[in-house]
Amino acid sequence: MPDKISEMHAEICRTLGSGARIEILNALRDGEKTVSEITRDLGLRQANVSQHLAVLRQRRVVATRKEGTSIYYKVSNPKIIQACELMRQVLLEQLRESEELTKLASPSRKR
Amino acid sequence: MPDKISEMHAEICRTLGSGARIEILNALRDGEKTVSEITRDLGLRQANVSQHLAVLRQRRVVATRKEGTSIYYKVSNPKIIQACELMRQVLLEQLRESEELTKLASPSRKR
DNA sequence: TGCATATATACGAATATTCGATTAGAAAAT
DNA sequence: ATTTTCTAATCGAATATTCGTATATATGCA
Q: What is the residue range of A44's domain?
């Protein structure tokens, strides 16, 4: 039985565990955007984007601001971006490592 | 449709999206441990710990080393620990913020 | 008021994840 | 060889997540 903090920690991680939501965070990297803008950027359906935003909002990964009929979303804490950046680096390092293993398995021909 | 990198990124995040797995990573913070040790530390069933380790292994969040009948697990990349640390900070900041809001809502009595 | 636009919610089907119980496999010890 | 110990894998039930479709709500405008 994981303790409460670990479970909350995991919940934040789960919140980032969707390709669409990762792309939303990337879209919000350099500032706030409206739902329409995000929807346009990602090329997903409006309802679907709104669902993902709801998940991010519930876990307070994003914050909102209302202006007229539009709602602006932004990442609530820059540390979230930093954490994402680190995990992306881990991913890229893994990919590089895989490539190297592949090369070792079938070395390119010398001529 | 999220691109491939974002989907892989999300997969790593999903891998951390379980309280038990977060606690496993915490248990491995200061070095490698065997499955038995992790199982004892967390107080979960061996089969369950092994299942979680399999998830972490598949996504290469942890790496293994065999010694006799034991298998030692460690976190594969220190950046994963760093990312977790950042997310835990985000979580703690959120909790502090909630506390403050609670205080504002029902201020402690002055005497 | 009526209508268009922006965003959120509800619902259901498909899919994925989680855990316990059980079994399998591999190495060590007797 | 048998038994014991350590770890992994399988299977099924319960639960959670995801997406599309449809609908609701709110705001601004004619």
A: 4-105
